[in-house]
Each structure stands twice: as C-alpha cells, then as structure tokens.
Amino acid sequence: MILKTIDVLGPMHGYGIARRIEQISGDLLSVNQGTLYPVLLRLEQEGAIASQWGSSENNRRARFYRLTRTGHKLLEAEKRDWEQTAAIIARFFEVKAQDLA
Q1: Domains of the chain listed by start with CATH number
Q2: In this structure, is the dihedral angle defined by the CA atoms of residues 86, 79, 51 and 28, taken in order, positive or negative?
Q3: Torsion angle in degrees (nearest 10) through CA of 41, 4, 28, 90
Q4: In the chain, where does DSSP find H-type helix?
Q5: pTM summary value
Q6: How far apart are CA 101 and CA 99, in angstroms?
C-alpha cells in the first residue's frame, strides 16, 4: 500500500502517506505511525524508496519518500503476487461439491 500510494501520488512524507492510505481505504484502515516508519526505513534500506528532507505543507521539516526503479519492480512483483493469491482464494469461494466429484 505504501509503494502504490507513492507511485500514484508522487513523493510524500510519512504522515501524508498514512493519511492517504486511510483515505483510499475509505477510512477502513488505520495506519499506526509506530508501524509505518519502520516499514519506510526497511523499504529505504532495500532500495525500494529514497528520501530527502523538505518542507511540509505547514512549513515543518519532513522526510519525503519517492519510489525508485527497484521500488517500481517490487511494486509490480507484489501486484502479481496479490492477483495470484486473490484468484486462488476466489476459487475456494466459488467451488461447489459437485465440482470436486
């Protein structure tokens, strides 16, 4: 979700990423700051995102994250994995006893 949010909306600071994920989910998901920042750090260490300091909308110093080439590749791989997993689960919801006879 983090990678896709940055991919769609461009460079963002952590708080902005969290709020956008919540907004996109229709406020069905709540992003915990204590979870978000370790994930951002891990993604940066893996080379999926890069960051630089800048000023937020309210002129506060904030770290802005952007997707890297590696991040784009990771996002595509994650998308394929998710689609495959969703298709497998869908098959279980669609199966009927007579299909297995």
Answers
A1: 2-100 (1.10.10.10)
A2: negative
A3: -120
A4: 2-9, 14-24, 33-45, 69-94
A5: 0.85
A6: 6
